[in-house]
Design goal:
This protein is of the alpha/beta class. It has one domain. 37% of the residues lie in helices and 13% in strands. The protein is built from eleven helices and eight strands. The strands form two sheets. Strands 3, 4, 5, 6, 7 and 8 form a six-stranded mixed β-sheet that branches. It has a two-stranded parallel sheet with strand order 1-2. Helix 3 packs across helix 6 and helix 8 crosses helix 10. The protein starts with a helix and ends in a 14-residue tail after the last helix. The relative contact order is 0.13.
């Protein structure tokens, strides 16, 4: 129980990316249920790769909004576009441009502000293309009554569900719909999955999966980096990995899917110099 309470307390507090800072009042009057919060996130943000489906052609300047890492700066930009309360759904051209990571991080920030334990997860969505794991982020929150982490995809609104023919509950996703970086990595390492079926666009394979293993570890330590942020072990080519590097990746992959009992080990691994942000790195 101590391990569980430690994890719950850790994930109920904001991190470097999810602290709204001076914009915290924007979260004050938001509802506390996940369905309503997902609708609010969807009403404030538009996915860069889905924008044209909503009738919006993004100028290059607007596309650069995906480079905004922390939630406080996202909220600042949101207010520049439309200064109404967050619960007011914006038209497409007044929504903040983001990607799956940004939808998940925003929901995580809102839940943590409500004192609900939540965390973003980096891995692969299995529902975008047939027989393919698409580079993707989701959110998990701790259901204290059921004593389990509930997985949510806050990006999936009614339009996307229709296009993708989604039949599962995106507010309580069943196992297998999303694979964390570690789950996919271990399946590929065991020969149970083809690493070339995991990635995005023309980027795929073990080298790409390795990045998501490490981004997921960092997200579990409340450092939700951008999908293209990389350093140290994320930047090496496969041929340059040592045996110790491979063993570290396998250990990280295993621990990141073990649940609250691995909380202390997951926290410790994030301090490995092959994983942690470089000195002087700023979000």
């Amino acid at each position: 129980m101590r391990v569980q309470s430690d994890a719950a307390a850790f994930y109920a507090q904001p991190g470097v990316m999810t602290d709204p800072k001076q914009y915290a009042p924007l979260f004050a009057d938001l509802p506390g249920d996940v369905a309503s919060l997902c609708a609010i996130v969807q009403g404030c943000m538009i996915h860069i790769f889905w924008a044209e489906r909503y009738g919006l052609k993004l100028a290059e300047e607007r596309q650069q909004e995906v480079q905004i890492r922390p939630v406080d700066r996202k909220l600042q930009r949101l207010l520049e576009l439309d200064d109404r309360p967050l619960a007011v759904a914006r038209p497409p051209d007044k929504k903040l441009v983001g990607n799956c990571r940004d939808f998940s991080v925003m929901l995580t920030a809102m839940l943590r502000h409500k004192g609900i334990s939540a965390r973003a997860r980096c891995g692969f969505g299995m529902y975008f293309l047939p027989d393919h794991g698409e580079d993707h982020w989701v959110c998990e929150y701790w259901n204290a009554d059921e004593q389990r982490w509930v997985m949510v995809d806050p990006q999936l609104d009614d339009l996307q569900k229709g296009v993708l023919h989604i039949t599962f509950d995106s507010l309580d996703m069943p196992a297998g719909c999303f694979l964390s970086g570690g789950q996919a990595w271990l399946a590929a390492r065991a020969g149970q999955a083809d690493p070339d079926t995991f990635g995005i666009f023309d980027m795929h394979g073990l080298w790409f999966m390795r990045g998501n293993v490490l981004r997921d570890l960092l997200a579990l330590n409340k450092i939700e980096i951008l999908p293209w942020d990389h350093w140290a072990l994320m930047s090496k080519e496969d041929k340059d990995l040592s045996e110790d590097d491979w063993q570290l990746l396998d250990r990280i992959a295993a621990l990141c899917q073990q649940g609250n009992e691995a909380f202390a080990a997951v926290r410790e691994l994030s301090q490995d110099p092959r994983v942690r942000p470089p000195d002087g790195w700023q979000p």
